[in-house]
Amino acid sequence: xxxxxxxxxxxxxxxxxxxxxxTVLELAWDLKMKRGLGQSHALLRDKVLAMLFFFSSTRxxxxxxxxxxxxxxxxxxxxxxxxxxxxxxxxxxxxxxxxRYFDGIAIRHVTYGTGNRYxxxxxxxxxxxxxxMQDEIYHPHQCLADLMTIMEKKGRNLRRKKMVVSWAYxxxxxxxxxxxxxxILQMPRFGMDVVLAHPPEFELMPDIMDQARExxxxxxxxxxxxxxxxxxxxxxDVIYAKSWGPxxxxxxxxxxxxxxxxxxxxxxxxxxxALGKDDVIYMHPLPADRDIEVASSVLDGRHSVVFDEAExxxxxxxxxxxxxxS
Length: 326
Ligand code: CP
Prior knowledge:
This protein is an alpha/beta fold.
């Protein structure tokens, strides 16, 4: 276990070492138990987190805000459109100024080519930790909750467990690539054999793929890419299937939708889940396009762990906040 996270940013999944992620998870389980017992755990009394949103949210906002209150502090919900950012407040000014008001700055900014840069520029100017509530490259707090959930269902030793990270069809909008990218970076560090499945136009960022291969090699885990969802799901322990936009191919929403619409058969149904092991779990960060991306019988069925996964956002984020902001 490694401590020493006080004052640190958490923007990329790899900002914390594997041992530091283990520390986060240990604390997350402790805080989850304390909440279960109704025991006070006011580790951040009088601390205030700024939550700056450039994009909508249900779980991220709810879990960060509730988490800060449960830790004895407060979270300020700030929508970018209600600020003076569009009138000239720069990233440096936001980092300097919010760094003087708040004890942490959490940001969601998923605009392609803009969000991650924004977070890093704020972090460079801020004297307090910057926490990534999702950008266009990473969703690291979602990934911590996912890892926590997998360990709860499959045991702490995940070596040789097969995890499928698959694209799935959705019709609502071109979703960011951040969830699959965080998963392929983090899961090989815990020994999981990751199979990434997507149609050819839905490639992930080349530097993220390189880092994922590097992690898999370093931690002696498998990492392969296939273009067939059914092939990928054979004997899987975990099927994590969600949509993302073909953003390396096009960022035009109409063209992206035309490409997506060719792959409506990339759909998670009971037949697909049956290809996995009998105790395979189905994961999705939500929101899902119900009965388009995944069948209700899967989302609400015996393999689904989506509500435990959503709950663990709360516990994992409380651990990160307590360790970085105390
Ligand atoms: N999974 C997730 O980040 O959910 P929200 O977009 O609702 O925050």
